[in-house]
Structure formats: structure tokens, C-alpha cells
């Protein structure tokens, strides 16, 4: 645990040197050996919903709002859970559409309420018996900054605001709602040597 904590702090310090490059949005961060090692320690993937799992659009006008979720992300999260990595969504906005999708995918932790995301995640970590260094967090807007600064691996989607890209360890090539979460899922599974085994199950 202590080694992971030191590694996590080192990774956070190294973010500072990459901030201007990532904030420009020109190049996604490289998956170097340090990031691969950190991804290998991830036991919980947490992410924002609107703008990360969706393209940030909400359809209103009927009795209830609707959202567009990406099927690639959905299967990726199912595979991640099968591989033993838990999943949680942390949103500052309550939505029945989000609740329904979370139930479909059997998401382990769902938080939908205004307030500090850091406090919400700390409550999740207490329930899960995990530490921040074992968390990969994916965000897109300034409400995610606190969680990104604390997480062992901080990820910004391609459409994230500059402030979020500046503190991220990795910026996805794909946009939120268009497979960004799946991209991160595959990075985690490959870093933990679990991806090929899952793929092989579908070759039979």
C-alpha cells in the first residue's frame, strides 16, 4: 500500500510537467511505463456521466429526459467488472436515465447529488475498502478537478475543458459518449494482462 501511495504521489508531481502540452489538446498523453504501472494497480474505475459516458446532450420535452449512451462503453464496463475491477459513476446531477443505464450495466456504485465529488468518492472508498491510489477517475469539466487531483490515475476525455486536460495523466483520443470510457477500460485491462483472455472467450 505504501509503495502504491508513493508511486501515486510521484505520478501527480509528473503531471505538472505535462500540463501545457495536454491543455493544448493537440496530442493525447502517451501510455508510458509509469502510467502502465499505475493502471495495473487500479481496482475501481469512477467517472462522471454527462460529457463522459454521454456527449453531454440531454433531450427534454416529454415526461422524462433521455440521454444517449455508447454501447462500446457499456460492454467495456461489463468486461471490466468481469475482470474484477469495480465501477462507479459520480454525477452532480440526478437523472432517471442515468439510473436506468446504471441498473442495466449493474454498476457497483452510483452517486447522483450536488456537492463535493471528493467527499462522495471518499464515502465510496470507505464502503469498498479501497484507497485513492487504486482509483482511475475520468472527467470532463471543472466539477471533476478535485477528484482528478486525488485519483491514482486521472483521465480527461478528448472534449474536456482545458483545466481538466491540464491535470490529467492521460487524455483520450475519443470524445465523451463516443467510446472514451471504452478506451480507458482497454488500457486498464491490458495493463493488468486481462484483455487477451477476455477477447479469447469470444473466439470460441
Would you mind describing this structure in some detail?
- The protein is of the alpha/beta class.
- The chain contains 10 helices and 6 strands; from the N terminus they run H-H-H-E-H-E-H-E-H-E-H-E-H-E-H-H.
- The chain has helices at 2-16, 19-23, 33-40, 71-82, 96-105, 117-128, 145-150, 162-167, 180-191, 195-201, and strands at 44-47, 86-91, 109-112, 135-139, 153-156, 170-171.
- The protein has a 6-stranded parallel beta sheet with strand order 3-2-1-4-5-6, with helices on both faces.
- Strand 5 (153-156), helix 8 (162-167) and strand 6 form a beta-alpha-beta unit.
- Helix 3 (33-40) packs across helix 9 (180-191).
- It is globular and about 45 Å long.
- Mean pLDDT is 88; it is low at 16-28.
Produce a short descriptive summary.
This protein has ten helices and six strands; from the N terminus they run αααβαβαβαβαβαβαα. It is an alpha/beta fold and 204 residues long. The chain has a single domain (2-201), classed as HAD superfamily/HAD-like (Rossmann fold, 3-Layer(aba) Sandwich).
Query: What distance lies between the first and last C-alpha atoms, to the nearest angstrom?
Result: 38 Å
CATH class: Alpha Beta
H/E series, N to C? HHHEHEHEHEHEHEHH
Order of strands side by side in the largest beta sheet?
3-2-1-4-5-6
The major sheet is characterized as: 6 strands, parallel
For CATH, the homologous superfamily is named as: HAD superfamily/HAD-like
Beta-strand portion reads: 5-15%
Number of strands: 6
CATH topology type: Rossmann fold
CATH architecture: 3-Layer(aba) Sandwich
> What is Rg?
16 Å
Overall average pLDDT: 88
Which structural class fits the helix and strand makeup? alpha/beta
Described by the principal axes of the CA atoms, the overall outline is globular
Task: Provide the low-confidence segments as ranges.
Answer: 16-28
State the domain count. 1
The share of residues in helices is 40-55%
**How many H/I helical runs?**
10
Amino acid at each position: 500500500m505504501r509503495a502504491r501511495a508513493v508511486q501515486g504521489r510521484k505520478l501527480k508531481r509528473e503531471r505538472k510537467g505535462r500540463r501545457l502540452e495536454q491543455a493544448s489538446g493537440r496530442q493525447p498523453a502517451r501510455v508510458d511505463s509509469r502510467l502502465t504501472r499505475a493502471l495495473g494497480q487500479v481496482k475501481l474505475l469512477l467517472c462522471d456521466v454527462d460529457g463522459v459516458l454521454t456527449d453531454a446532450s440531454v433531450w427534454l420535452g416529454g415526461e422524462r429526459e433521455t440521454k444517449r449512451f455508447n454501447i462500446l462503453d457499456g460492454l467495456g464496463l461489463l468486461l471490466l467488472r468481469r475482470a474484477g475491477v469495480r465501477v462507479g459513476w459520480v454525477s452532480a446531477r440526478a437523472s432517471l436515465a442515468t439510473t436506468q443505464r446504471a441498473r442495466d450495466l449493474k454498476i457497483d456504485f452510483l452517486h447522483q447529488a450536488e456537492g463535493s465529488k471528493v467527499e462522495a468518492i471518499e464515502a465510496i472508498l470507505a464502503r469498498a475498502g479501497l484507497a485513492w491510489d487504486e482509483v482511475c477517475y475520468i472527467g470532463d469539466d471543472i466539477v471533476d478537478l478535485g477528484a482528478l487531483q486525488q485519483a491514482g490515475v486521472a483521465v480527461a476525455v478528448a472534449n474536456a475543458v482545458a483545466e481538466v486536460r491540464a491535470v490529467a495523466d492521460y487524455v483520450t483520443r475519443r470524445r465523451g459518449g463516443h467510446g472514451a470510457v471504452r478506451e480507458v477500460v482497454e488500457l486498464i485491462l491490458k495493463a493488468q494482462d486481462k484483455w487477451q483472455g477476455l477477447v479469447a472467450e469470444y473466439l470460441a
